[in-house]
C-alpha cells in the first residue's frame, strides 16, 4: 500500500514534466513562444507556414476578422532519435508530434521504391532533400463551428517531383497540408 501511494504521489508530481516534449536535451511545452523554442531546440532543418482567418459575429453589424499565422518546424536529432514536428499558432507552440527516426545527413536516405504516402513534408525532406521541381496551389476551407463563427484555413496542395536519375522513373508526389497524399511514377 505504501509503495502504491509513493508511486501515485511521484506520478502526480511529475505529470506536468511528462506532458512536455523533449527537444534534444531541453524541454518545450505547449504555450511556449517560438523564440524560446528556438533558444532551446536550435534552428529547424525544415519549416513551412500558412495563414488562416477567424471570423466572429459574421452577418452582424460588427464583424471581426483576425488573421492567424500557422508555422510548422521540423527537427532531426540523428538516426538514433525520433524527429520532431512542432506546430505554432501566432508564434505560440500549439502542438507537437514525434515522427519516424531521423537521418545522419539530410537528403541521403531516399529510394525510388520507398513508400512515400503518409510522410510529412519534413520527413520527406529529411530523407530525400528538396525536390527537383515544386509547384504550389492553395484552396480555402471554411469551418463553421457555430452561428456567426467561421474559421478560414488554407488547404495547401503541392506537387513535388524527385528525379532518381538513370533509367529510374521520376516520382511525382502530391502533398496536401504537409503530408504526402499520393506518389505516382513519371516516365522519362
* Backbone CA Rg: 21 Å
Termini gap:
70 Å
- Segments where pLDDT lies below 50 for 5+ residues? 10-18
Mean pLDDT: 87
| N-to-C order of helices and strands | HHEEHEEEEHEEEE
Structural class: alpha+beta
What is the number of E strands? 10
Give the tally of structural domains.
1
State which percent range the strand residues make up.
Answer: over 45%
Give the oligomeric state.
Answer: single chain
What is the percent of helical residues? Answer: 10-25%
User: Major sheet, described briefly?
Assistant: 8 strands, antiparallel
Number of helix segments? 4
Structural shape: flat
Protein name: DUF2845 domain-containing protein
InterPro entries: DUF2845 (IPR021268)
Signal peptide: 1-19
Keywords: Signal
Amino acid at each position: 500500500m505504501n509503495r502504491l501511494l509513493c508511486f501515485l504521489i511521484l506520478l502526480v508530481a511529475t505529470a506536468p514534466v511528462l506532458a512536455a516534449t523533449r527537444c534534444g536535451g531541453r524541454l518545450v511545452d505547449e504555450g511556449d513562444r517560438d523564440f524560446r523554442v528556438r533558444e532551446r531546440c536550435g534552428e529547424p532543418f525544415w519549416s513551412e507556414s500558412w495563414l488562416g482567418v477567424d471570423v466572429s459575429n459574421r452577418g452582424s453589424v460588427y464583424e471581426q476578422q483576425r488573421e492567424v499565422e500557422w508555422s510548422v518546424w521540423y527537427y532531426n536529432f540523428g538516426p538514433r532519435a525520433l524527429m520532431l514536428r512542432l506546430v505554432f499558432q501566432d508564434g505560440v507552440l500549439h502542438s507537437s508530434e514525434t515522427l519516424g527516426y531521423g537521418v545522419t545527413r539530410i537528403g541521403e536516405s531516399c529510394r525510388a521504391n520507398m513508400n512515400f504516402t503518409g510522410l510529412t513534408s519534413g520527413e520527406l525532406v529529411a530523407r530525400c532533400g528538396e525536390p527537383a521541381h515544386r509547384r504550389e496551389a492553395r484552396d480555402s476551407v471554411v469551418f463553421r463551428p457555430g452561428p456567426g463563427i467561421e474559421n478560414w484555413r488554407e488547404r495547401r496542395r503541392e506537387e513535388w517531383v524527385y528525379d532518381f536519375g538513370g533509367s529510374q522513373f521520376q516520382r511525382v508526389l502530391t502533398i496536401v497540408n504537409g503530408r504526402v497524399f499520393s506518389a505516382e511514377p513519371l516516365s522519362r
